[in-house]
Design goal:
The chain is mainly alpha-helical. 63% of the residues lie in helices and 6% in strands. The longest helix is centred in the middle third of the chain and has 47 residues, at 408-454.
Length: 908
């Protein structure tokens, strides 16, 4: 038995031995141990022996060596059920292996009532800064939020040195067991496998490779939904090449040889193609009922020799050796062989190429070919001969071709029709191929970024990667302008979503220049529509509209691009306060998408979010809330709820709560959104619109210092990026804060700067115009210039802008009218403001906006001599405000002071 004291002495020596490259070097190291280490020679020999066995053992399936098991807990006895590990209580053992054990467990502190799968690796992992790495990687891996990935909930080390990892507990069978037990067909097996590929591609996009993809790590639940397990052995690509993450649960390389890629076994740098190889083995087993080869569990040199010289048979040929496999797939062996022969053989063997450069570079590329197979389309893994394409066409149109043989005349007519449709099919094939090539180019670009990050000596942020991206595009796509244009387009859209519109416009210009000689009209359409949106973001509204109208005037090779162009019209209408146009174009985009045979669910989610904003523009807040919810459900189903577009939808949903007078709810949502934007990279830039919107909610709640800090951060970022919309918004927010603090001179300076930006850089219909006049009115009112204030508020009321802002403008105009003695006008404006605020309240019990409107009305009623009405209005204001803002918020303080000083309504 190895106790904690002995382990603390042995662990550094074991680390030193495991750093040596070969077994021979380790034996020589043992023979030449220094004097202080010689008492531990026998223990070290046993641990190295156990490590050698564990390195070629299937994790959680092969029993561990006795000494290593003892080291796991500091004693030889198994963990008793009921033992407490950190905040968890062990319930029953689920499995064990060379690296440790897994238990079903529950939390003891009652914070979360859910079972977890608790992994207990041996305490030796705590060496070499394991605690710090575990905490860092726990946070990164826990951010992998996808419907087909089991979540990592927690990880840590107890006071006595026991590491633990808490994972989502999944009730289910392995994908092989599930498919065989359910006698799933080849098609059903591929459809399940596509879920695996979706999860793996999601992880790759978040800079994580799995490294241990095998059946025991792919479970299928009762609803036939895949759950990918054990990203705890993943290699985080940002942590350097060739250096295994400590979450491998092993002091050396963690792998399962039967499912490992050649580069894994050889100890070379890994990329996404390594996971593709393991996926190819899993797919082979799903289809053919066996793995492509068997490796003897021998020492490292034998494994390397075997993996490099193995001859992988075609799945269709392997099925002859597995007659029971055919029955498990609902077919006879000859029928199953015919099904696998051809495309599926080609796809699987491409995934299993020994050289990573010859494989599918990404899980998405493998997924695309499998989907093409299911759809009867030509796959990319084989040459597209004319005979091959024609055969595919006939396979997709068997009934039509058979009917054409009914008579000689029918044959003649059908032959002409067939020739026409064949040309159409070829044209569609060419476009599909071009689209797939562009997607593959983007995927390759992503892989290049990931590999480059993997070769970095330190952590790499998303911003670091993007700063290198243009260089990679220029180098990697020098000879393919279309691919360069597609990648530049993607980069431009990223910068646009985070508010760096100047950078987005520059990249779009480069993309269009690269594609100037392109023969792909769909690519040109896409680039022109995206360029129009970047123009609009920079305030070049008329140019943007003209570009969209010109592009939409012709037939689109890809109708989905047309949908996006229509959607952009809705964006621009919203940004220029064309409420009716915003809703009309969003509804047109949704109808156009749903009219297609293959609508994209992610695009539909984006359109639903845009339609929600349009409903919000038109004071249909209940409808808006419903559409926001529908959009986010789709994003969650797709596992894309953390993407930039989904973040924008969340932001708009949060502003809906703000418009409804729920600033605390909106603030909580903004904080949640910011966490999402930074969960993969804490250094990632928060979109400027998020910073400004959050600051506005803080100001509404009454947290003025925090609001000032938020606006200042947004202003600094906006100036750096040349984002004039965000610059104006931040300056206007700081203007209001200075005025509310009584710093009138500072407010005037800030407003003058904001006005210069608005008038010089923003279109006449920009939302900031109404906000500028609103602040101008409040400043004039604060300085006793009621006439000027009325004029400014009047402009704000009549300016196109959000309806929520109109409530404030009407209230301000009412107060200026009071100062001018125009009681009737003040009363009408105050009541209109209250009515509009209540309509925006959307069924909520309380609204800060409604409370503010009641406060404005109370002043009018008091001026009319209606003390009872004023008292009721003040009580209503206090009720709404006290339930939605902080106690020190200025309007709430003013309402309470006014009510306390109001003479009793019954007094003479």
């Amino acid at each position: 038995m190895i106790g904690p004291d002995l382990w603390s002495a042995v662990s550094p020596l074991l680390d030193e031995a495991l750093d040596l490259p070969t077994e021979e070097a380790r034996q020589a190291w043992l023979h030449n141990l220094p004097a202080h280490a010689r008492p531990y020679r026998e223990t070290l020999e046993q641990l190295l022996h156990d490590h050698a066995r564990a390195q070629t053992a299937d994790f959680l399936q092969t029993p561990a060596g006795s000494a290593l098991r003892a080291a796991h807990a500091g004693r030889a006895d198994p963990e008793p059920s009921g033992r407490i590990i950190g905040p968890y209580r062990l319930l029953r053992e689920l499995g064990r292996g060379g690296m440790g054990r897994v238990w079903l467990a529950e939390r003891t502190d009652g914070l979360v009532k859910r079972p977890v799968a608790l992994k207990l690796p041996h305490p030796g992992l705590a060496a070499r800064g394991f605690a710090e790495r575990l905490a860092r990687e726990r946070d990164i891996l826990a951010a992998l939020s996808h419907p087909h990935i089991a979540r990592l909930y927690d990880a840590g080390i107890t006071a006595d040195g026991q590491p633990f990892i808490a994972l989502e507990y999944i009730e289910g069978r392995t994908i092989i067991e599930d498919c065989d037990a359910g006698r799933r067909s080849v098609r059903e097996r591929i459809e399940l496998f596509l879920q695996v590929l979706e999860a793996v591609q999601y992880a790759h996009a978040h800079l994580v490779i799995h490294r241990d993809l095998k059946p025991s790590n792919v479970l299928v639940d009762a609803q036939a939904q895949v759950r990918l397990l054990d990203f705890g052995v993943a290699k985080l690509l940002v942590h350097g090449h060739g250096e295994p993450t400590e979450l491998t649960l092993d002091a050396g390389r963690a792998l399962t040889p039967e499912y490992a890629s050649p580069e894994q076994i050889l100890g070379r740098t890994l990329g996404t193609a390594s996971d593709v190889y393991s996926l190819g083995i899993l797919l082979y087993q799903l289809l053919a009922g066996r793995r492509p080869y068997e490796l003897a569990r021998q020492h490292q040199a034998s494994l390397e020799l075997a993996i490099l010289n193995v001859d992988v048979p075609r799945p269709s040929a392997a099925i002859a050796k597995e007659p029971e496999a055919a029955a498990a797939r609902g077919a006879t062996a000859p029928l199953l062989a015919r099904t696998l022969r051809g495309d599926l053989d080609t796809i699987v063997l491409k995934a299993l190429k020994a050289s990573p450069e010859e494989r599918y570079e990404t899980a998405a590329a493998l997924s695309a070919d499998l989907q093409r197979y299911l759809d009867g389309e030509p796959v990319q893994a084989r040459p597209d001969s004319r005979l091959y394409v024609l055969r595919k066409f006939v396979a997709r149109n068997r009934l039509a071709v058979a009917a054409a043989a009914a008579s000689v005349i029918a044959i003649t007519v059908a032959a002409v029709g067939f020739a026409i449709e064949a040309r159409v099919a070829i044209r569609e094939r060419d476009y599909a191929r071009a689209l797939a090539d562009r997607s593959d180019a983007t995927a390759r670009f992503l892989n290049d970024l990931l590999v480059e990050a993997g070769q970095s000596k330190g952590p790499v942020s998303i911003d670091d990667l993007l700063s290198q991206s243009e260089k990679l595009v220029r180098i990697g796509y020098r000879d393919n302008p279309d691919h360069r244009a597609a990648v530049l387009d993607q980069l431009a859209m990223y910068y646009a979503t985070v508010g760096n519109h100047a950078k987005a416009a520059d990249l779009m210009a480069q993309a269009l220049s690269a594609a100037s000689g392109s023969s792909d009209p769909a690519l040109i359409d896409q680039l022109r529509c995206n360029e129009a949106m970047t123009m609009a973001d920079l305030g070049r509204i008329d140019e943007a509209k003209a570009r969209l109208e010109t592009t939409l005037a012709h037939e689109f090779p890809d109708p989905r691009v047309r949908v996006v162009c229509i959607l952009y019209r809705s964006f621009i209408a919203h940004n220029t306060n064309d409420r009716e146009g915003s809703m009309r174009y969003a509804e047109q985009a949704l109808a156009a998408l749903r009219g297609q045979s293959d609508p994209l669910p992610e695009l539909e989610a984006q359109i639903l979010g845009t339609l929600a904003v349009a409903y919000q523009d038109n004071a249909r807040n209940v409808d808006a809330d419903r559409q926001f919810a529908a959009a986010m459900r789709k994003y969650v189903e797709l596992g894309r709820d953390g993407g930039h577009v989904a973040v924008t939808v969340r932001n708009n949903w949060a502003t809906l709560h703000g418009d409804a007078g729920q600033p605390k709810r909106a603030l909580a949502l903004f904080d949640e959104i910011i966490q999402i934007t930074q969960r993969d990279d804490p250094s990632a830039q928060v979109p400027l619109y998020l910073l400004n919107n959050r600051a506005f909610m803080l100001r509404t709640i009454g947290r003025y210092e925090e609001a000032a800090a938020g606006y200042s951060a947004a202003l600094a970022g906006a100036r750096k990026q040349g984002n004039f919309v965000s610059t104006a918004t931040a300056l206007l927010g700081l203007t209001g804060l200075a005025r509310e603090r009584g710093e009138i001179a500072a407010a005037e300076r800030l407003l003058a700067e904001a006005r210069q930006v608005v008038e010089a850089r923003l279109p006449a219909g920009a939302t900031a115009v109404a906000r500028m006049w609103l602040e101008r009115g409040h400043l004039d009112l604060a300085q006793g210039r009621a006439d000027d204030a009325f004029s400014a508020f009047d402009i704000a009321v009549k300016s196109p802008g959000p309806l929520a802002g109109r409530v404030s403008a009407l209230g301000g105009r009412a107060q200026s009218e009071l100062k001018l003695g125009r009681i009737e006008g003040a009363n009408a404006d105050a009541r209109r403001a209250l009515e509009l605020a209540q309509s925006l309240q959307a069924g909520n019990a309380y609204s800060a906006r409604t409370g503010s409107a009641w406060l404005d009305l109370s002043r009018v009623l008091l001026a009319q001599g209606d003390r009872a009405g004023a008292s009721h209005a003040l009580q209503s204001a206090i009720e709404h405000l006290s339930n939605t803002v902080d106690a020190g918020q200025l309007q709430l303080v003013a309402a309470r002071a006014a009510l306390s000083s109001l003479p009793s309504a019954q007094s003479p």
